[in-house]
Amino acid sequence: MIEQREYVDPLEQTTDWFNVINWVVGEPAVDKNRIGIRGSSYSGGHVFYVAALDPRVKAVVSQVGAFDSRWVVSDQAQRDLTYAEGAKHARGEPYPAPRAVTVGRLIGAPIRESMMRYAPIEEAGKVKDAAVLFIVAEKEELFDNKDHAKLAYDRMPGAKKKYISIPEITHYGVYREQREQAVKYAIEWFDQYLKK
């Protein structure tokens, strides 16, 4: 068996988040009533999705998160490609060579048939038990904030939510020039909602 690497399957990735929570709540040193999760970029959507489906999550920090992968069926050409790849995979054909696929500056093979079913934005109404901090880059270039974090924020019920746009940075600015500020926001959020 050959291990697959450098592919993007959001359903598999979010399953890993659920598995980690299941494991950690069994640890004696963990207070299972104060679980917080933080994700950045694609996993910024993952943590929101997990919080929507797992009420044990009490605090979330979603940093420059992507909340909708249905671009893989956004027009007829994309749909045809997605369905064709799904048919090939169902018949045992291998996924595309990961290094052959790039989306913007990202390298990796998207598992399109999983991505077409992955839209954390549609789960926003279910996020009721967690306090969610959305940190976005004002000059986000990989997707439009209004269709991702801002829409998730607007759709999420309740008052335990906050939306922060860091001025003058692009997507990768939260890892470079404004990293310390983004980390500070995250720590403050977790302190507010997880400390006794």
Could you explain the architecture of this structure?
The chain has 196 residues and is of the alpha/beta class. 35% of the residues lie in helices and 17% in strands. It has helices spanning 10-24, 42-53, 76-90, 112-115, 149-155, 179-194, and strands spanning 7-8, 35-40, 57-63, 102-103, 106-107, 109-110, 131-137, 161-166. It has a four-stranded parallel sheet, sandwiched between helices. It has a two-stranded parallel ribbon with strand order 1-6. α1 packs across α2 (42-53). The N and C termini lie far apart (47 Å).
Attribute tags:
single chain; 196 residues; alpha/beta; Rossmann fold; 2 domains; 4-stranded parallel beta sheet; two-stranded parallel ribbon; 6 helices; 17% strand
How would you sum up this structure in a few lines?
The chain is of the alpha/beta class and 196 residues long. 35% of the residues lie in helices and 17% in strands. The strands form three sheets. It has a four-stranded parallel beta sheet, sandwiched between helices. Strands 1-6 form a two-stranded parallel ribbon. It has a two-stranded antiparallel ribbon with strand order 4-5.
